[in-house]
Model the fold of this input.
Amino acid sequence: MNGASVVDADVGVVGAGPGGLAAAARLAAGGLSVVVLDEGAGAGGQIFRQLPPGAARPAADHEPPSHASGHALLAAFAASGATLQPLATVWDARPGRLWFEQHGASRLLRCRRIVLATGAHDRCLPFPGWTLPGVLTAGALQVMVRGFAVPPGRRALVAGSGPLLLPTVTALRQAGVQVVAALEASPRRRLWRALPGVLGHAGRRREALWYARQLWRAGVRLQWGCTVFACEGDGRVERAVIGRVDAEGRPRRDTARTIEVDVVGAGFGLVPSIELGLHLGCAARFDAGRGGHCLVVDADQRTTVDGVHAVGEACGIGGAEVAAAEGEAAAAAILRDLRGGPAPAGAAQRAAAERRAADRLLGAFAPLPGLAELATPETIVCRCEDVTLHQARAAAGLHGTSLRAIKVGCRAGMGPCQGRICGPFLQALAGGEPGRPMDLPVVRVPLKPVRTDTLLQAPPG
Amino acid sequence: MVETADLVVVGGGIVGCAVVHQLAQVLPASTRIVLLDRGPIAGATSGSSMGHLMVTPDDAAAYALTSASVRLWRELQAETGGFDFQDTGALYLADTDEDLALLPVLRDQFVARGDAAELLDARQLRELEPGLAGDLAAALHYRGDAVVLPMPACAAMLRAARQRCPGIDVRPCCEVTGFDRDGDRIAAVRTARGPIATRNVVNAAGVWAPELAERCGQPRLPIFPRAGNLAVTGHHTTPVRTQLLEVSYLRFAHGVAAVDPSRTDDPGGQAVNVQPQSCGSCLIGSTRRFRGFDRTLDRELLHRSLLRACRYVPGLAAAPVVRAWVGLRPYAIDKQPLVGPWPPVRGLWLAAGHEGLGITLGPITGRLLAQQIAGLPADVEARHWLPARFCA
Done:
């Protein structure tokens, strides 16, 4: 089956992170044929990313407690009979059809149901020097360290907002990188607001304690209400300017000071990856607390399009526990649809409970609007098309205040990333008028860049 | 107090922007012009288009208008700049005996217009464009064509216009909801943000010009959307430097369509049109099909146009496609734009229906209409563009 250009399955799952794995394992155990497509080389997704074959595995006490559930998910998936198609990039779809590129071949997955477990991507914020080599997103740093076992530098600054700063710091420490500073932009009182969401959830409580111990052992202290103002250097990052921000995230320039670093991990949270869902016609709504536009789903994780379910971060940032629970809920509903039988025992309720708990925690780390002021008029905001903030503002002024107008006016968002990097920033720039809904990202085929011959060899669907 | 304007231009695409730009050249600096668009400036057909400035030799009148317009483009580039303009020239390609025989015919047409084009043999062709397929026997090289990015070009026209006439007001995302008449004369434009009293309105709404005319109580204009699919490759991937087009493109794109544009059973067609962009991307087109206002990707036609493009430029097969989309060309039933007064309503002017030549013909359209509105003699003869031909 691996080489055929057309693959058939009862269910096609996009994404092999916790949501996709949980859904696939449960669906396959229920007797359905399941194919999981993932861009990575192996299962696990970003959070349970597996090291390449031959790389030294970290000792068990070097892994956060949540990774035990990751191992359990991976084992259940491996035993379930579901098939993983790794290194597969989905570039076009319609209900029941997923076109993907794999090893240079153009392939089609035909299925009765689609489960979108497409996860999330880093929320990028432009600041002076953010395009210098050595400045990476928190996600990219983790790919280097945990996916390829490559230390990205010697002296690191980690800055941004939200719980993902913690695994970034520990991953760097384990790769032998000195973490010079770890800056959380949110004011410290957000910690107190987030605490009930942590302490009230057994898994998160264990996780938080583990990270607190790791940071304490490494001598890294999380500094609240601080962030990176700028990165400087000749051809690559050599220095970072850091300082305090006010409660809204606005930089307090009088507090700026410079530190010497050779790598910067900037992680301002995550944005749900909903492009495939939008392309399929699924409705989305804006929820700042969940990271931006999220696919709309019901209690059984059904989107507004028949035969398309969505789970995990695509429905709003919530973390691995939420994704796995929602994967189970989607699988239970699909099994009921396709195989009949008794109603599932509480999968949807468990998913809803996990989602509520995550909302309590992550709501405390909603994006700080003032951080947009880190960018100066000369700062590049669209790094694919080299568009500065000044040019984007001029385009918004002449062509009209909307994401589409900015794109038309200055080409921001027209490059290979299709607005995934600059989108959230430009969305906020366009959404200047109160009361107007945030513009949805514009989605075009191919959803990710693929070679012309991949398009030409696409099996007809 | 009701807002007033000397002129309201509806449609912020290349034609509307060129009309505003040219009006600013011939009217007093105190003239108050309002440009309205229901979306962003250059956000519809112009923003979806290729930006090939194309001099067409196959007809004397068409040559006079396209070459005059490309000259105006060069003047704009020299005077204001601020938009991507590339002197790419054009290569007319052929891969059948029938089409190869057309190359000298086309060359003779350029010569007959007092212009020049050069027939290249296989060796000369490879020297000029090593990225072309090795088996091409000949091509025709015309140096007069160029390529612009339409969106920044629209912005440059509006900037230049506002420098001459500070009273020009550009209003994107402002929809026209209707018109007020005073007898047979325009009295006001009603918009989503209130009425504007004016005695002159230019309908430059492209494929939506018929809809706008209907809001003015006029019968549907004979303009129909003709869809085109385009794909663009990533930066620094273009294997060629010259604008490429199949010689059959002229027959395919510039003739009156063989099908009834109001029907939806048009099978459509394509002719290769490959355009290197200033950032090193490559635009791949072009397809034509009548299917109403549907802007979903036409996978079958796109497939055919990519396949044919790779036949001429084999290196494109390995280039990453970043995005593909559909734009709607405003096709007038007799394949000529409607530029001039609309006699049944005094004060209503039309500038629409340019099909695939809107970017090329934008400046001359603006110039001719501005001269008519200002009562000045015309630069170029374009009686066959007058909308009165549809007022029997």
Notes: Residues 158 and 265 of chain A are 5 Å apart (CA to CA).
